Structure of D-alanine--D-alanine ligase:
Amino acid sequence: MKKTIALLTGGTTGEWVVSVKSAATIAQNIDSTKYDVYKIMLTESGWFYEPADSLKIDIDKNDFSLTLNGRKIKFDGVFIAIHGSPGEDGKLQGYFDMIGIPYTTCSALTSAITMNKGYTKAIVNGIKDLHVAKSIQIFKNISFDIDDIKNNLKLPYFVKPNSGGSSIGMSKVKHADDLQAALDKAFNEDNQILIEEFVEGREFSVGVFKSKDEIVVLPATEVIPANEFFDFEAKYTPGATEEITPGRMTDEEKNRVGEIVTGVYQKLNCNGVVRIDYFLEKETGNFYFIEINTIPGQTATSFIPQQVAAMGMELKEFYTQVIEETI
């Protein structure tokens, strides 16, 4: 018997555009012989299902159900494809926990923690062979001394919103005089900011998921942006970044990276598919953790579909494995 799945998309941040594109890829590739899928849009004005031949139909938030042509539809599980809030920060996960509906992502606790880059780095620090760049975390409502930042961190550094995604509000600072402008830009997106020392190295992004209780590491993608760094434009503009999948790593590097990211997945108690970004430092080859994305993009230009293809797997089979493991 087919399971009834809600594919939840949209969101309340600037990342909703990416979420809609991700949901389109997922909807096209979910196995229709196993699942009946209803795409549910979440916006600031409401949650609704929009059939092709009808007006928007509101979701009953009391039990996350849908009444269609007089028939009440309840869902066996939810495939969450919302990047940013409230899909990636634990809010929706807490709601679904309360009403007893399983979902494809990490738990509410893990989602909330991993949305905070500073807290995440503190947790993963200590995993064998994992390094983190020196950083300072500051808060909008707590006074800080900009000179202390300049004295304690070596230029250049990255300034990024602590809880944002898609590199929105992020800057690379090469000159100390440019720091204040970078802080202002980041504070427009978040009330916490992370300032990190720059690590010179090759950048990679790797998908990790669980299937049949086994952690699977996908082939990593090497990222060579044409811009100064891998910003929003580079991420979502076709051709703006050179992407090599599988990325160029030695066998030793592949094995070491696989062990490290498996350790990250376990230590953060992840579920579903996540994407871990990292540098291999130029001089040493050391693994430097950048961040983890617990609802990675699934658009036509996203890394996860590229990596699934590089593994020799169809997206239909991949999404089936994700659903079966989590729902």
Q: What stands out?
A: Residues 113-131+200-326 form a domain with the D-amino Acid Aminotransferase; Chain A, domain 1 fold (CATH 3.30.470.20). DSSP finds ten helices and 18 strands in the chain. The mean pLDDT is 92. The two ends are 15 Å apart (CA to CA).
